[in-house]
Amino acid sequence: MSVELRMFNCATKMDDSNNHHHANDMSLGSLTVGMMVGGYMWGYLADQRGRRKVLVVSLTVNGLFGGLASMAPWFWLFLLLRFISGIGVGGSIPVIFSYFSEFMPRLRRGAMISALATFWMAGNILAAGLAWLVIPRTWAHFSLGTLDFQSWRLFVVLCSVPSISSAVLFKFLMPESPKFLMEAGREKEAILVFRQMFDLNMKGIEKDFPEFALRTNSKQQGEIEEIRSQDKKRTFPISVLKQGLLPIKQMFSGSVKARSFVLLIIFYCISFGYYGLWMWFPELFARVESSGGSPCANVSLPSPLNNQSCYPVKTAVYMEGFVIAASNLPGNIFTILIMDSTGGKTLLSCSLIMSSLSVFLIYMVQTKAQSLGLSCIFSGVSVIAWNALDVVGTELYPTQLRSSALGFFTGVGRVAAIMGNVAFGKMVDSNCTVPILLVSALLLTGGLMALLLPQTRQTELT
């Protein structure tokens, strides 16, 4: 994203260094705010209307408006399109974990969700490799009227292709979650999905589809039908808002109240800590190169726009991004192998505590190679926590709340990420030690709070 924004700044003649930094902040902020809004909105709709429908629409929104952003001739329009694209991203992330988990057998669910989370790493590697191949190429540069189409715009278009293709895949090939259909009282549709799964798994084996009865949630079915009937009668926005916030009320009451408060703290701590430090790693490591020593040295760094041309782009940026993305592989493999035997709660707590301790390695960094190594260590350890959080989040809530809860906590995480980025930026020049200690303390707090969660390893989804 930072490279993409630098290219946009060049194309729009944003030569002032302050404008450059504000452009990066605003673009990342617009995307993050969009993800914050979309997370709960799509999660709520997925619990009411179905996972598959919401995935198709949210992926389409992400891909369509992400692609349109590449054609934006004005920065304000670019921000608006990125915001709308972020709404789509915010919906697809929590809903896909609900959808996927509801197909998995309980004995292998943790490993399979961890395997799904591994594709986040795969996407990062693909994006870094694609940027490496596309953005430095000067041949992808031509003018369309007032639009200066440079290589970064082509990169943005290509990055929108997976979302569009995934939306098509879900629309025509993937069934609705049978767990959702059962909870919604749609027995016949659920049986059809089970038959499809049976035929696929038993292909080439002579075996008849077994006769069985489904135990559906008639209460949930009645609630959904009541909500749909109210939707037709409802005319006042306050009534719509009240109904939309009902899942949050349910999350913080009854038997799931305690776990919701614990998860709220964990999501805030990990998002504030991880993104607060992660977004400022390049700045701290640039100070290492400039000062030849401490990353907390208060040195004046040259503006990237005033001291280097936009083209050619330094390919070291993409190489480093590629290496850091690939450093998640050991952590991903580790979680796949031991998630079902150890449980998400234990892994979440241990990895957050280890991430907290790894932050202090920043004071040992003296060279660029060491800074890259620290980035890989922090990323590789942190990914275990993120994978464990994905597993735990899906297992702690019943089907009728699962997507709403994941969407809500994802939104909380986006708020914390913005706050962490801003807070780190405000404090890094006055006293670099304070934000680093703050990040470490928050990650440690999250790790200790995880011990309060119930053990959900290999339990049946409700």
Automatic annotation (TrEMBL):
Cell compartment(s), UniProt: Membrane
UniProt keyword annotation of Electron transport present: no
Topological category with respect to the lipid bilayer: Multi-pass membrane protein
Keywords: Membrane, Transmembrane, Transmembrane helix, Transport
Residues covered by the Major facilitator superfamily (MFS) profile domain: 1-458
Major subcellular site: membrane
Membrane-crossing residue ranges in chain numbering: 26-45, 54-77, 83-100, 112-135, 155-173, 261-281, 346-366, 372-393, 405-424, 436-453
Protein name, entry field: Major facilitator superfamily (MFS) profile domain-containing protein
